[in-house]
Design brief:
Two copies of one chain form a homodimer.
Chain A: E1 4-8, H1 19-26, E2 32-37, H2 46-51, E3 59-60, H3 63-67, E4 74-77, H4 88-99, E5 103-106, H5 116-119, E6 126-128, E7 152-157, H6 164-177, E8 182-185, H7 189-193, H8 210-225, E9 229-233, H9 247-252, E10 257-262, H10 283-292, E11 297-302, H11 309-323, E12 327-328, H12 330-333, H13 336-346
Parallel strand pairs in A: 1-2, 1-4, 2-3, 4-5, 5-6, 7-9, 7-10, 8-9, 10-11, 11-12
C-alpha cells in the first residue's frame, strides 16, 4: 500500500521556497499526498492554487485540523528555508505531527534527528534526507561511466529554482508517451521524494565524492534498468557565485547533450537581487561555456514567471531563430519538441 | 616552542603521492620537520633526494629507528593513498608513533579517530584534518566577498598534482621579497600543515558550503591581516572528470586573475592514463574557459616533470609568444616574472 503524507508549506506555498511542495502536488510522489498545511489557502484545493487544475488535495490551516480529516503516515517538510534552518512555526507543526505518530521527512540541512525535543516525540521515526554520509560509504569516480551505453542528457539551468527538476520529470513522461524508457537521476531531496530510485543529494555530499556518487548512480541505473536515455537533474548554475555546479554533469557523467532552463524575466541570481555582481550571464555565453566544457545545448526550456503569454511567445520564437534549437514552455506547452530533438540527435 | 614532526612517506617518497611530504620539506611547515620515514632512502638527506639541496632532515627506515635519534612531538602522514584509505604498513608505523606518545596528524579521508586499535594507543592525541564539519558549523555564501578590497588571484591547474600549492607558496615569498604582503588561502590539508592560517579543506566539505567556506576564509583573512593580495590555492582542474573544481575560485571568490599550472609532458588526467576519455584539454581552450567563467590567465607556471631542460626552455619561449603572458618554471627559475605581472596589472 502506498504511504500517504501531509506536506508542511508554512505560509510559503505561493513562493519558490515551496518548490518541493509544488513538485509533489504535480507528481509523481513517493507518498500519496493527502493534504498541505498552509493557513493562507485553508479550504482551497492545492492544484487549483498551483496551476488551476483541481487535484483533490486540500489545504489545511494546521496539522491538528488536517488530522481531523485525513490519516497520513508521513509528514514532509515541503519548503526550503534560508540557511536550511528550521523556523519555530515549522517546528510546532512537526511536533504536532510527531505526537500523532507520523514519520517526519526532512530535507533541510538542519537534522531533526539531532533535536532532542523532536526525537523524544517522534515515535513514528525521522527521515533526514540531507544527513551526510561518511566518506567510507561514498564512491570515488572511476571512469566506469565510459562503459555505460545509455546516453546522458543533463538538465542544467541559468540559475537555481528555475524548473530543472520539473522539466526532467516532464521529459521522462514524454519519452514514456513515445514508448521509450528514460530514467531521471535525482540530485536533490525533492527527486527522492518524487519516488526516483537512482541519485544522491548533491549539496549534502562531501565534495570529493560528488563525481563518484553521480557516476555510481548512473552505472547502477543502467545495470538495473537499461534505459534508452538517462536524464540528469542539474543543481544551481555553472557560474552561480553562491555555489557553481553543473560541470560534474558534463565532465564526470559525460553528458552528450544539455537541456538548458532559462528565465528571461530574471535579472539576478535567486536570493541575490541586491548585489550588482550577481546579474545573470547571457544565454549565448552560457551555451558557449557548455560547449567548452564538452557538451552542447540541444534545447531550451523556459521558466515563464514574470512574463505575459504574448511576451513568452515572442521570446520562444526569437530564441528558436537565434539558436536554431527547440525552445519550449514546459508547463504550458509540454516538452515534446525537446524529446523529438533528443531522439533525432541520438537516433533513438 | 615550535613543535616537531616525523613524516611517514611509506616507500612513496619518490612519487606524486608524497606531495605533502615534499611541501613540508621545502617549507614552510607548521611543525619543525626532523625526519622522514621511508626505507628506500634510509641514511640519506631528504632535501638532497628531493632537489639536490641539503636540508639536514634525514630519512629513517622505521619509526623506532627514528625515535632512537630524534624526539618529535607529532607524526604526520605525508602521503596520499588511493581512495584515502590507510594501508596496513602505514598503520604499523602509526601504532609505533602512537605508542611513543606522539600526536598523530592525518590528512586521509579515513579517520584515525574512528579506528579503535589506534585511538586506544594514541595517548598523544589525533588530528584528523579531513574530518567533515557538520552543516551547523559551516558558512553559506553571502556576497560579502564584494566588499573585500584586496584582489584575489586563483592558482588553478590543468590537472591535480601539478604544483598549484607550491607555486602559491613561492608567489607569497616573492611578494614578501618585493615588500608586499600576500596571503595564501589553503584548500587542502597540506596548506594547513604548512602553517597557513586561513582556508578550509575543499574536498571534505559538504558541497553546499564550499563557496561559503571559501568566502568566509577570504573575508576573515582580509579583516585580520589586510594583505595587498590574496592568493587562492586551487584544487583539481576545471574539467577533471574525477571531480571538476575551480569555478568556485573564479565565481564565488571573484578572482581578478588566474595563474595556470601546466604540465606540457602530461597527456592524461592523473591516475586515469588508461582511459581514452581522460586526455587533457589544450591550454588555449582552458584559457578561453577561464575567460568565460569571468577571469583571465595572467601567467603560466610549468610543472616540468618529463621534460629535459632544453625542452622546457623551448616551451617557455613558445608559450610566451603564443599567449603574451609570463611563463615560468617556478622551482628552477622562481616566480618573479609572474609577481611582476600581477603587480603591473593590479597597479600595486
Amino acid at each position: 500500500m502506498k504511504q500517504s503524507a501531509l506536506i508542511l508549506a508554512n505560509g510559503l506555498f505561493d513562493s519558490v521556497f515551496a518548490k518541493t511542495t509544488h513538485g509533489l502536488i504535480r507528481g509523481p510522489s513517493r507518498y500519496e499526498i493527502i493534504g498541505v498545511i498552509d493557513p493562507t489557502y485553508a479550504g482551497k484545493d492545492t492544484g487549483v492554487v498551483l496551476d488551476g487544475h483541481h487535484r483533490g488535495i486540500p489545504f489545511f490551516s494546521t496539522v491538528s485540523e488536517a488530522l481531523a480529516h485525513v490519516e497520513p503516515t508521513h509528514c514532509v517538510i515541503g519548503i526550503a528555508t534560508v540557511g536550511g534552518i528550521l523556523p519555530d512555526a515549522l517546528k510546532m507543526d512537526l511536533l504536532a505531527a510527531a505526537s500523532a505518530g507520523l514519520t517526519l521527512v526532512n530535507g533541510l540541512h538542519q537534522l531533526l534527528s539531532q533535536d532532542q525535543s523532536i526525537t523524544e516525540k517522534a515515535t513514528g521515526g525521522i527521515i533526514d534526507l540531507r544527513k551526510p554520509l561518511p566518506a567510507s560509504e561514498l564512491h570515488f569516480w572511476t571512469g566506469e561511466i565510459f562503459s555505460v551505453p545509455a546516453p546522458r542528457i543533463a538538465i542544467l539551468g541559468m540559475d537555481c529554482a528555475i524548473g530543472k527538476r520539473t522539466t526532467a520529470m516532464l521529459l521522462q513522461t514524454e519519452f514514456k508517451n513515445q514508448n521509450m524508457h528514460a530514467e531521471v537521476i535525482y540530485t536533490g531531496q525533492t527527486g527522492w521524494l518524487q519516488g526516483l530510485k537512482y541519485g544522491f543529494i548533491f549539496d549534502s555530499t562531501l565534495n570529493d565524492f560528488v563525481s563518484g556518487e553521480l557516476e555510481h548512480a548512473i552505472v547502477s541505473c543502467y545495470r538495473e534498468t537499461s534505459p534508452d536515455v538517462i536524464l540528469l537533474e542539474g543543481q544551481s548554475a555553472l557560474r552561480n557565485p553562491s555555489g557553481p555546479a553543473g560541470s560534474e554533469l558534463i565532465c564526470s557523467a559525460q553528458s552528450r547533450g544539455v537541456i538548458l532552463q532559462h528565465a528571461p524575466a530574471r535579472t539576478h541570481y535567486e536570493d541575490f537581487e541586491h548585489l550588482d555582481g550577481c546579474t545573470l550571464p547571457s544565454l549565448t555565453d552560457e551555451i558557449k561555456l557548455i560547449r567548452l566544457l564538452g557538451s552542447d545545448v540541444w534545447g531550451i526550456s523556459l521558466f515563464t514567471q514574470g512574463l505575459t503569454k504574448p511576451q513568452s511567445t515572442e521570446i520562444v520564437e526569437q530564441l528558436q531563430v537565434d539558436h536554431q534549437i527547440p525552445v519550449v514552455r514546459p508547463l504550458e506547452d509540454g516538452v515534446k519538441g525537446i524529446v523529438d530533438e533528443i531522439v533525432k540527435r541520438l537516433r533513438l
